[in-house]
């Protein structure tokens, strides 16, 4: 077996490490285990907040550090505690929301509350994806602003995700950041926050540098992470914006794209 060239393997979850049924294949688990045995750490870097990530980490037997909430939360899975947590300024978020709606009309909203047990609130008209992730419906918009938040989710009845993201960025780019994290998932997060900021904090704790990191992803919110890491690998199912900045494109998440690359690097 050849020497593995990286000390850190950073993987997104949805559309990257996870298959459509939220499982991780045996082949990918084995490849990650082999990379770990070769001296690399595996770190999950996801847009999901901790409450929507923890069950996956537990199933993987993952006991290290994970970056959650688009970089807002650095979470120690083995100790089940938050190491860092950055919240969204609710006054700025409210202002940004009003400016976006002035441009495009009413939006359907959801919000992720801060903390290990932070609930995801879903407002009227917000389209949720099928699956096991818990959420709490609300009717009174004031409920969104009643507790600290990590982010807002916004949806438009007719605009595509790409269109909504572009218009929102042009409208409120100096107040907050707007990211597209998946189909139907456009998020408002603190200005300057990205997966790269969270990953750099976690890597510092692990004593690993950007030049020693390989990253895997599938959506535009992974672009900053690719910019930070030495090598960015987009999945075959990735958004075209991410493919455009990737160092290479591998097979899809359903076809063990992570394992394909790791096995090659391991000489397996």
Could you walk me through the main structural features you see in this protein, from its secondary elements to its overall organization?
By secondary structure, the protein is of the alpha/beta class. Helices cover 30% and strands 24% of the residues. It has helices spanning 26-37, 54-60, 90-104, 161-172, 195-206, 223-228, 240-245, 257-266; strands at 8-11, 41-44, 65-68, 73-76, 81-85, 108-113, 120-122, 136-137, 149-155, 176-182, 185-190, 213-217, 231-234, 248-249. The strands form three sheets. The chain has a six-stranded mixed β-sheet with strand order 8-7-6-9-11-10. A five-stranded parallel β-sheet has the order 2-1-12-13-14, sandwiched between helices. The protein has a three-stranded antiparallel β-sheet with strand order 3-4-5, covered by helices on one side. A hairpin with a 4-residue loop joins strand 3 and strand 4 (73-76). Helix 3 packs across helix 4 (161-172). The N and C termini lie close together (7 Å).
Question: Helix and strand layout, with pairings?
Answer:
Blueprint: E1 8-11, H1 26-37, E2 41-44, H2 54-60, E3 65-68, E4 73-76, E5 81-85, H3 90-104, E6 108-113, E7 120-122, E8 136-137, E9 149-155, H4 161-172, E10 176-182, E11 185-190, H5 195-206, E12 213-217, H6 223-228, E13 231-234, H7 240-245, E14 248-249, H8 257-266
Parallel strand pairs: 1-2, 1-12, 7-8, 12-13, 13-14
Antiparallel strand pairs: 3-4, 4-5, 6-7, 6-9, 9-11, 10-11
Helix pairs in contact: 1-8, 3-4
